[in-house]
Amino acid sequence: MRGILASSIGVACAAALALPLAVPQGARAAAPASVTDVAGPVPGSTQSLPLSPLASDRAADGAGTQGIARRDVLPFSLVGVVWDDPEAELHGRVQVRTRATGTTAWSDWQDVETHNHEHSADHGTPERTAGRLRGSTAPLWVGDSDGVEIRVEGEPAAPRLAEGSTDGSTDRSTDGSTDRPAGSAAPLPTGLRLELVDPGDDPPPQGPEADGPRATALTPESAASSAVNAELAPIGAPVISELTKQQTEADLVESRGIVQASTARPYIGPRPRIITRKGWGANEKLREKNFVYTKSVRAAFVHHSASGNNYRCAQSPSVLRSIYRYHVKSSGWRDFGYNFAVDKCGNIYEGRAGGVAKPVYGAHTLGFNSNSMGIAVLGTYSSSNPPRAAVNAVARLTAWKLGMYGINPRGKVIMKSGGSNLYKKGKKVRLNVISGHRDGFATECPGGRLYNKLGKARQSSARYQGR
Q1: Where are the beta strands (DSSP E) in 54-139?
Q2: Strands (DSSP E) found in 105-259
Q3: Percent helix, strand and coil across the chain, each to the nearest 5
Q4: Is a pLDDT exceeding 70 seen at residue 158?
Q5: How far, in Å, CA of 32 to CA of 227, rounded?
Q6: Is 117 left (phi over 0), alpha (psi -120 to 50) or beta?
Q7: CB-based contacts of 365: which residues, under 8 Å, 6+ apart?
Q8: Where is the composition biased (Basic and acidic residues) (predicted)?
């Protein structure tokens, strides 16, 4: 827990508990030296297939409709659609159906959340200006498949009448310029491609946690990703073990070299069990080499991954590896976008590399990635209730992580917008410390059913902190 920005933790102790030093906002920390280099194939793969115009009974001339007819492909488990311009929005409907591997059974049509650019790096940051970003839908987990069909239809345009017009035959803007016929489909972004992601095999079993991780050779990238958590777990560990509240408090005080009064305790929740990137099999060669940090962690934004609920918890590592590959290889991000992920069984996973106890700069909430962390609950919770275990995991995680920065989960925080479709750049916004994605950006995320549970998460998180 050393190595985070020095600041007052704001708890009732005999002396102030200073937070460990962090790299300044936007700075890149050099990766530690390698342990052992291991050559070998990169696990997982991505098939990228261009979409082309389709005929449709709803758009007979094919205008505004693109897709791929039913076809055989190499095995994959996750799908998404990307396009050239990250600032362009896809206004329309994306639907896919897939065939389970080794069968003749095709799924029903499934909707893919259009997502657009609400989950992404902030404007003006190197991650956004590097020229690699693409527009993208949310990823959809479909399970082991070897056949696919897709259609993307532009959203029908609402009629806009010219002044004095009554027939509605032409969509005309108020300045007199003709846009397109009323009711015609919205133009789709250019360069639409279907991304089919194979997560690769699960990492080999590591043995009982009590025995510690097996001695395995690490690539330089894996060693670097693990070393930033070295004060919490051995290098190469698949799991950071949980601590009791008393152990967490003692660890927090000891790590800062502060003599604490016997009656004073920091407001921090017990450290939860966290499955590391090594534990879920992240291929560290996919991401950018170095780590990027912000100044602090003053807020947590909760998301759903919008990847569907058709996964077993044993498949969560595969889901994560797929989303990670989709974020980096397909969408052009520098790493996995969220700082943490939670599955429907309540398991907590390390997300973007840089250290679970550190203020890692994410790409989860456009305009509000600075001084915050993003937590993605794996699944889609627009019309499905999030499992109690997942909501409780959000509470436990925030109680610990926010507690290291002296933040009350039930409180409010003033955040400065980096620019979103809700708040212009530079605007100061008062938000809940634990907010939903939709609080910073006009979006359905984290789904209405999960959003409605955030009040409970705030209360539980504060209770875990001892407030």
Answers
A1: 65-83, 92-100, 110-112, 135-136
A2: 110-112, 135-136, 140-154, 171-172, 178-180, 193-198, 239-240
A3: 20, 25, 60
A4: no
A5: 7
A6: alpha
A7: 118, 119, 301, 303, 372, 374, 420, 437, 440, 441
A8: 114-130, 169-178
Residues 298, 289: contact at Cβ < 8 Å?
no
Query: For residues 184 and 216, is the Cβ–Cβ distance under 8 A?
Result: no
Q: If residue 413 lies in a helix (H) or strand (E), which one and from where to where?
A: strand 412-416
* Integer Cα distance of 398 and 66 in angstroms: 42
The Cα angle at residue 433 between residues 432 and 438, in degrees rounded to 5:
55
The 3-state DSSP class for residue 4 equals coil
DSSP calls for 29-66: EPPPPPS-----PPS-EEEEEE-EE---SSSTT-TTEE
Give yes or no for a cis peptide into 446 (omega within 30° of 0).
yes
For the chain, percent of residues with pLDDT exceeding 70: 77
- Listing DSSP states for 243-312 in one string gives --HHHHHHHHHHHHT-PPPTT-----PPPPPEE-HHHHT--TTSS-SSEEB-S---EEEEEE--S-S---
Residue 79: partners with Cβ closer than 8 Å, 6 or more residues away = 96, 98, 112, 139, 140, 142, 148, 150, 194, 195, 196, 197
**Cβ contacts of residue 467 below 8 Å, gap of 6+?**
267, 408, 409, 410
Q: Which is more confidently placed, 124 or 88? A: 88
Which tens digit of pLDDT belongs to each residue from 392-440?
Answer: 999 999 999 999 999 999 999 999 988 888 888 899 999 999 999 999 9
Q: Rounded to whole angstroms, how far apart are CA atoms 226 and 237?
A: 8
Q: Pick from 19, 430, 86: which is nearest to 258 by CA? A: 19
- What does pLDDT average to over the chain? 83
Report the interhelical angle of 388-403 vs 454-465 (nearest 10°). 50
Q: Could you give phi then psi for residue 324, rounded to 5 degrees?
A: -55, -50
Backbone dihedral region of 205: left (phi > 0), alpha (psi from -120 to 50 degrees) or beta?
Answer: beta
pLDDT at residue 155, as a whole number: 84
Q: Is 396 helix (H, G, I), strand (E, B) or coil?
A: helix
pLDDT of residue 76: 97
| Whole-number pLDDT of residue 157 | 62
How far apart are the C-alpha atoms of 279 and 57, rounded to whole Å?
48
- Using alpha carbons, select from 304, 310, 306 the residue that is nearest to residue 98: 310
pLDDT per residue as tens digits for the range 225-235: 999 999 999 99
Of 348, 453, 452, 440, nearest to 400 by C-alpha is 348
Whose tokens are 């080499």? That residue is 289
